């Protein structure tokens, strides 16, 4: 078969040791922003979400994209049946879903943290003659939505299937009145908020199609058909927030097919101007991904006379106000194109597709490009045959990227899955005066050290891409540095109890502040799902951990654990004797968590125990910890750092400190 482009949207190699104790101006100081609406009572009420602010435009790049790709085993229904994967979604390191088709049937494959397996999925009932799934979006291991189409003799109709944690079922879609209707892409923020995109084929023309899911039914949303276009379609959609979505595809004009981008701002779809390589050249955008409303990339290909096959890579970048063509590596002399992109931070995007191995359209190889915040660069990627292509990619920040596609085996297409780890070098230590100390490539972006503080700093959290961080004070004041955006804080507001920690959402577009009485305050895209505020506690809360799917845990000094928003409860030390009190916790990329005590004792739940300082002599007590993809760290109040299956790059242990260390981030 000839190569058919597919549309997918989902979604550190710095080795030098840097030790810095610096000062700088905060992006947002305590009480500097207008107070959030809602009841800021400290008893656990959610604070109304503050509007997202544009990310800084001068953030130096930090390479936190994968660079070492390898092929992993993937199943097929039969070696004599064509099996292809078109899209994937990985909400955590231990749960991924890839979709496509096998023969004339839907194909769903699932990753459980150690192996891929085929998961039964339904097909449309007769008289359907063929079914396929083109894209999938998962919010967690118990909710996914997949879209595609089925053929009823010569009529194409949408096929939508939902996953509830155990079973895939077909979800009805509304009639549109078109002869053919296709859904090519889907983006879900939660089990009650999804957007699907595709196109309708009427006798007159193709027109863009968007549908929304409210948790119980799909409804058709009004889109804009560009004036003067003979055909227009959406091939991709990405919704980083509840009030911002981008759909991308193409529109046909009298001269050529040109890019089409439309934006949804919470109520209507409208056309957003998008550039093209030339008015007489075809330009297509089969994928778009937004890390935030101000950071998006759309990828595809443009026709070009400079390659033997007449097409080459096309990348457009969005800065919050304008789309522009990004300088990107060429696919080479023979040409090629990009089918999918996932942006998981302002300095972290991965795009995948194909390169033609010769002037033949049946000879192509895998292609991967990576964005590090300043440039797009080609990456080495294995290709097992002369007919390999990648059509989907999904990345778990700080963990792994997974790309899916197909490879030709004995003249038959079979599934192909590649993975690459995402390095997160270095770590940060923070002192109670706001001083920041950076090690092993972690970037120093400024600090509150040397600045006036109304209350001491009690915690730190890093952005998902590692390009910035937040410091939080006990009065709820929040200070943002690097590419960390300020979404509001409890600084200047009445609190029943002091703030003790901060947790960041998976997107990096929001965060939680937690108080010692268990009261929780949500900002940006952080979703309030309950708290221990106002509830009886045996001991005070000392920390918070946010899961890869946006839920969160609160931990008390006696080891009691309280889980909210779908965060899995995997056990705790509550009710068990402790030599010393708990001082913090961290959640792993796989969804497990650790609790750490002031004597360095560590307790692992759904995560491997790799050692601890419990029972060993310490100069000063442990005050916090941080997890990495391979292990974890413990940090003491004198800055001493203890690494377990994680690279040690130095510490403030034995160095002069103006104030004690109170936490760390990695």
Structure description:
The protein has no helices and 47 strands. With 666 residues, the chain is mainly β. The protein is elongated, with a radius of gyration of 25 Å. The chain folds into 2 domains: 118-380, 6 Propeller (Neuraminidase), CATH 2.120.10.10; 427-665, YVTN repeat-like/Quinoprotein amine dehydrogenase (Methylamine Dehydrogenase, Chain H), CATH 2.130.10.10. The model is unreliable at 1-63 (pLDDT under 50). A 5-stranded mixed β-sheet has the order 1-23-24-25-26, with no helix packed on it. Strands 2-29-28-27 form a 4-stranded antiparallel β-sheet, with no helix packed on it.
Could you outline the blueprint of secondary structure elements for this entry?
Layout: E1 8-9, E2 70-72, E3 83-92, E4 95-102, E5 105-111, E6 116-118, E7 128-140, E8 143-152, E9 155-163, E10 168-170, E11 180-190, E12 193-201, E13 206-213, E14 218-221, E15 232-241, E16 244-252, E17 257-264, E18 269-271, E19 283-292, E20 295-303, E21 311-318, E22 323-325, E23 336-345, E24 348-356, E25 364-371, E26 376-378, E27 388-396, E28 400-409, E29 412-421, E30 427-431, E31 436-439, E32 457-462, E33 468-473, E34 478-482, E35 499-504, E36 510-515, E37 520-524, E38 541-546, E39 552-556, E40 561-564, E41 582-587, E42 593-597, E43 602-605, E44 622-627, E45 632-636, E46 641-644, E47 661-665
Parallel strand pairs: 1-23
Antiparallel strand pairs: 2-29, 3-4, 4-5, 5-6, 7-8, 8-9, 9-10, 11-12, 12-13, 13-14, 15-16, 16-17, 17-18, 19-20, 20-21, 21-22, 23-24, 24-25, 25-26, 27-28, 28-29, 30-31, 30-47, 32-33, 33-34, 35-36, 36-37, 38-39, 39-40, 41-42, 42-43, 44-45, 45-46
């Amino acid at each position: 078969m000839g190569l058919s482009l597919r549309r997918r949207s989902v979604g550190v190699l710095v080795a030098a040791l840097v030790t810095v104790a610096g000062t700088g101006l905060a992006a947002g100081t305590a009480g500097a922003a207008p107070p959030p609406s809602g009841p800021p009572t400290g008893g656990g009420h959610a604070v109304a979400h503050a509007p997202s602010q544009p990310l800084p435009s001068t953030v130096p790049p930090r390479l936190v994209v994968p660079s070492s790709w390898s092929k992993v085993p993937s199943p097929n229904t039969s070696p004599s049946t064509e099996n292809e994967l078109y899209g994937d979604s990985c909400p955590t390191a231990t749960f991924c879903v890839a979709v496509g088709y096998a023969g004339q049937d839907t194909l769903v494959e699932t990753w459980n943290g150690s192996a891929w397996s085929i998961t039964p999925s339904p097909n449309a009932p007769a008289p359907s003659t063929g079914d396929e799934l083109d894209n999938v979006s998962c919010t967690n291991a118990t909710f996914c939505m997949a879209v595609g189409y089925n053929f009823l003799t010569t009529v194409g109709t949408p096929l939508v299937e939902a996953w509830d944690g155990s079973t895939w079922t077909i979800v009805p879609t509304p009639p549109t009145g078109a002869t053919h209707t296709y859904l090519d892409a889907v983006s879900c923020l939660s089990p009650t908020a999804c957007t699907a995109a595709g196109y309708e084929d009427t006798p007159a023309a193709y027109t863009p199609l968007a549908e929304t899911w409210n948790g119980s039914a799909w409804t058709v949303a009004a889109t804009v058909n560009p004036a003067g276009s003979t055909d227009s379609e959406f091939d991709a959609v990405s919704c980083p927030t509840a009030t911002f979505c981008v759909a991308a595809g193409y529109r046909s004009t009298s001269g050529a097919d040109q890019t089409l981008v439309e934006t949804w701002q919470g109520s209507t779809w409208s056309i957003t101007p998008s550039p093209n390589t030339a008015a007489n050249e075809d330009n297509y955008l089969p994928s778009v991904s937004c890390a935030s409303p101000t950071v998006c990339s759309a990828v595809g290909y443009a026709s070009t006379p400079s390659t033997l096959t007449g097409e080459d890579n096309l990348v457009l970048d969005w800065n919050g106000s304008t789309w522009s063509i990004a300088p990107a590596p060429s696919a080479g002399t023979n040409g090629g194109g990009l089918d999918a992109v996932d942006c998981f931070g302002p300095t972290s995007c991965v795009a995948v597709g194909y390169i033609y191995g010769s002037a033949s359209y049946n000879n192509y190889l895998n292609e991967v490009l990576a964005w590090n915040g300043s440039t797009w660069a080609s990456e080495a990627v294995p290709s097992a045959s002369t007919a390999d292509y990648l059509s989907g990619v999904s990345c778990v920040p700080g963990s792994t990227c997974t790309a899916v596609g197909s490879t030709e085996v004995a003249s038959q297409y079979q599934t192909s899955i590649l993975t690459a780890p995402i390095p997160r070098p270095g770590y940060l230590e923070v002192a109670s005066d706001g001083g920041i100390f950076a090690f092993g490539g972690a970037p120093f972006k400024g600090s509150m050290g040397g600045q006036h503080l109304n209350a001491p700093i009690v915690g730190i959290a890093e952005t998902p891409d590692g390009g910035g961080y937040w410091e939080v004070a006990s009065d709820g004041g929040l200070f943002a540095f690097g590419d960390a955006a300020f979404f509001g804080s409890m600084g200047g507001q009445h609190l029943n109890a002091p703030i003790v920690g901060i947790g960041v959402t998976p997107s990096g577009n929001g965060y939680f502040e937690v108080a010692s009485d268990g009261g929780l305050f949500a900002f940006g895209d952080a979703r309030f799902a309950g708290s221990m505020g106002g509830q009886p506690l045996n001991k005070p809360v000392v920390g918070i951990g946010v899961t890869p799917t946006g839920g969160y845990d609160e931990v008390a000094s006696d080891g009691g654990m309280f889980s909210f928003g779908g965060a899995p409860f995997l056990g705790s030390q509550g009710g068990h004797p402790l030599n010393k009190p708990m001082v913090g916790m961290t959640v792993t990329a796989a969804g497990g968590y650790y609790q750490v005590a002031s004597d360095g004792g560590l307790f692992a739940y759904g995560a491997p125990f790799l050692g601890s300082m419990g029972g060993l002599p310490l100069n000063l007590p442990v005050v916090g910890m941080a997890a990495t993809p391979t292990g974890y760290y413990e940090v003491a109040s004198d800055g001493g750092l203890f690494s377990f299956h994680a690279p040690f790059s130095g510490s403030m242990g034995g160095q002069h400190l103006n104030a004690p260390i109170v936490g760390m981030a990695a």
